[in-house]
Amino acid sequence: MNNHDIYNAMLVKLDDELPEMPEFLPGIRRAPSRGFSLTPAQTETALKNALRYVPENLHEILAPEFLHELVTYGRIYAYRYRPPGRIYGKPVDAYKGRCLEGRAFQVMIDNNLDFEIALYPYELVTYGETGSVCQNWLQYRLIKKYLEVLEQDQTLVIESGHPLGLFPSKPEAPRVIITNSLMVGMYDNQADWEVAAQMGVANYGQMTAGGWMYIGPQGIVHGTFNTLMTAGRLKLGIPADGDLTGKLFVSSGLGGMSGAQPKAIEIAGGVGVIAEVDFSRIKTRFDQGWVSRITDNLEEAFQLADNYRRNGKSISIAYYGNVVDLLEYAVEKSIEIDLLSDQTSCHAVYSGGYCPQGVSFAERETLLVTDRMRFKQEVDKSLRKHFELIKILVDRGAYFFDYGNSFMKAVFDAGVKEISRNGVDDKDGFIFPSYVEDIMGPQMFDYGYGPFRWVCLSGSAEDLEKTDKAAMSCIDPGRRPQDRDNYIWIRDAQKHNLVVGTKARILYQDAEGRRDIALLFNAMVRRGEIGPIMLGRDHHDVSGTDSPFRETANIKDGSNIMADMAVQCFAGNAARGMSLVALHNGGGVGIGKAINGGFGLVLDGSERVDNIIKSAMMWDVMGGVARRSWARNPNAMLTALEYNHAHRGSAHITLPYIPSEKLIKETLARGGFEQCLN
């Protein structure tokens, strides 16, 4: 067997002509160096791994290019293979393809790499510092070729960005199955993952980046809006029909996901001050109209915030500077903060996700390349200071919550054992709540509410408006405060100009809400009222992700460290015929800290899709509600009980019996476990 035989044996392959090196446009954010640490033998393998995508006649030219990229950037991106010009999600009919799903997935991939959406578009990073569509442009081009020839009776398999190939299936099976960075347990850690990523065998899909379901930053706006409103009700005493008028929210981060914070606090009626060290990210949000004011002056930032707060008006202020400086000023000046959080990318805390106090953004970039050990030391020092300031502000009345970015885990790893709830390790969580633990878990996920989303594949604004109205018709705002929030959200969605990229929308809904909206949309497609729709969700959801530091933070039966739910969700969606299913390691909290699964479903108006919606949409949500109910979460138990009554004879969830607390304590006391009773 030789390379000539290999070339002739493949129908889907990269061309044997060398593309021109594309132009890098000025002003586009570029990823920092990820660091190069491979041994000579590993480096040799990494080169071979990249060159196996291209015909042999190109190897002599590409080998030194790939080596240069690897040593310089810590990754082989194969920049030469990036298509020239702008990449963005075009209307579905603009793409080549033999089936609608194959064209729809191309829309989603390209939307993730849009200059207006992607954090580092030239490095294929969509959001979260490292969340990537795939590893390199070789994979991108080959995936596109496969999607162009994908048939209704085939399934494309993607493993960490690599298109393994097309395999016979049936129309009722998924068209694409994706996995990312599923490390074997012994090697499931950041250090081994770094080696694997440098060698070109692991892709950090984050969640919806590697699952091709990212719809732009509006997704996290809704989640942040819900979080802030619910926190206001639970911790600040605002009424069910109230908002955050007169309340101050302080946080950090204006990147891909964190950039939602200023928009969310304005929609909620409050005042926000958000710190960010990268001015390009501030400018992006300002140009989009997602942040109202910019200042690098701490006095001005808080004076402005106070004026708006006292006058009952809403505003978001971007502070160009370090969040630790911001909090230090707030402590020194005794500024009253109502809600306090952090959305820096602490899942990649030593890879540029967190910029330490006293280090400029430019210095951060340099240190990442020249002195990673010093950078780590500075990060740890800053995190410890950050924690001390938060403690003071909490003592003064602020409600602090970790926004699922692994901030508290990073503080613990920096040597602050005090942040651990048990003072020893992180298994029992931390002294401050995760937003899932206190807010999203019991008030959203346990009821089945989560980030349901859709994309109008036609690219038509009219289609988006029609789907907004249709979705609104399925919501009863008087059922729960959550439904009221969601009704107001979708009612005002057009007014708030949330769309960046494809014509997409997010709407938190429970299981029945998602099913009913999906069936209505598919009927509208069938009647020709709208074009085809891509349905999906953030993997950060009721059932999609197992992570003790975020999605399963409010599970207290010891199973918070188990990943059965996410895997079952993935497998169940595949079995029920979702168009796309994805399973990743990492999520928003880092490698080894989460397993998360997602889906995509193309609505073509067919009865076949109706049947998938009826079985898969309910499963996708209720599998997670059932797990949360089994953990004895009261709201999940109530939801599961109602489900059993409503679906008697067709579906059934196992419910837990609740033992008497008195009985448990008496039994322990009789058994000599008095110390457990303290």
Question: Can you give keywords for this protein?
Answer:
3 domains, 678 residues, Urocanase fold, globular, 6-stranded parallel beta sheet, alpha/beta, Rossmann fold
The stretches of 5 or more residues where confidence is low (pLDDT under 50) are none
Per CATH, the class of the largest domain reads Alpha Beta
Structural category: alpha/beta
- The CATH architecture of the largest domain would be 3-Layer(aba) Sandwich
Largest sheet: 9 strands, mixed
Number of domains: 3
Principal-axes geometry comes out as globular
The value of Rg in angstroms is 25 Å
What does this 3D model show about the protein?
This protein is an alpha/beta fold and 678 residues long. The protein has three domains: 3-116 and 134-199, no CATH class; 218-433, Urocanase like domains (Rossmann fold, 3-Layer(aba) Sandwich), CATH 3.40.50; 449-651, Urocanase fold. The chain has 23 helices and 17 strands. The strands form three sheets. Strands 3, 4, 5, 12, 13, 14, 15, 16 and 17 form a nine-stranded mixed beta sheet that branches. Strands 8-9-7-6-10-11 form a six-stranded parallel beta sheet. A hairpin with a 3-residue loop joins strand 1 and strand 2. The longest helix has 24 residues, at 372-395. The radius of gyration is 25 Å and the shape is globular. The model has no long low-confidence stretch (mean pLDDT 94).
